[in-house]
Amino acid sequence: MVVSPKIAPSMLSSDFANLAAEAKRMVDLGADWLHMDIMDGHFVPNLTIGAPVIESLRKHTSAYLDCHLMVTNPMDYVEQMGKAGASGFTFHVEVAKENWQELVSKIKSAGMRPGVALKPGTPVEEVYPLVEGEIPVEMVLVMTVEPGFGGQKFMPNMMDKVRALRQKYPTLDIEVDGGLGPSTIEAAAAAGANCIVAGSSVFGAPEPGKVISLLRTSVEKAQPTT
């Protein structure tokens, strides 16, 4: 297998009042990562969680906390997120065009895995330099909805970006986020996505474990056999 599947339930869809229990439930049901949406109310209109919540959750789980920072000034968050116990730090290319090299370096120095995200309107070519940099990002997150709110419909035309990335970088972790579930996973997996963020489709399911398992199987089946 060229890239391993990583299923990341989006904790934005969980019961925030019982975050530790929800995290444990997802890991017990087979989740590889827990996806944490950090929004600043500026880069996106919504305001969610920050480092204090990550720090609190970290005391209750050893899971990989896949943090997606929908913030205008990602540099301001690196130190606090590292100290809080974030595992991955994914910033948006739209706000890091000038300083991404320094940002990636700081993320790694703080003990986190650097990733870059792009909004639906951003051309995929904008992340190529970051994947090919001297200190490269280790994951690209292709947003399949406009970032900011859960429960939106999957945008199938974003799969062109995933395909382009997978052809260019066969071993890169490529994540998709937005509207992923049983009805859309085949398209994402076939295009080459291996890290799958799923919120409503997991948390809203009668048997979330079955959905996590289905998402993983779809990614595994779509892997090239050579």
UniProtKB/TrEMBL annotation:
Enzyme class per UniProt: isomerase
Gene3D superfamilies reported in the protein's UniProt record: Aldolase class I (3.20.20.70)
Coiled-coil zones: none
Keyword tags: Carbohydrate metabolism, Isomerase, Metal-binding
Catalysed reactions, as listed in the record: D-ribulose 5-phosphate = D-xylulose 5-phosphate
Record EC number: 5.1.3.1
Cofactor requirement: Mn(2+); Fe(2+); Zn(2+); Co(2+)
Keyword Cell wall biogenesis/degradation on entry: no
Domain of life: Eukaryota
InterPro entries registered for this protein in UniProt: Aldolase_TIM, Ribul_P_3_epim, Ribul_P_3_epim-like, RibuloseP-bd_barrel
Family according to the record: Belongs to the ribulose-phosphate 3-epimerase family.
Name under which the protein is recorded: Ribulose-phosphate 3-epimerase
Protein species of origin: Brassica cretica (Mustard)
Phylogenetic placement of the source organism: Eukaryota, Viridiplantae, Streptophyta, Embryophyta, Tracheophyta
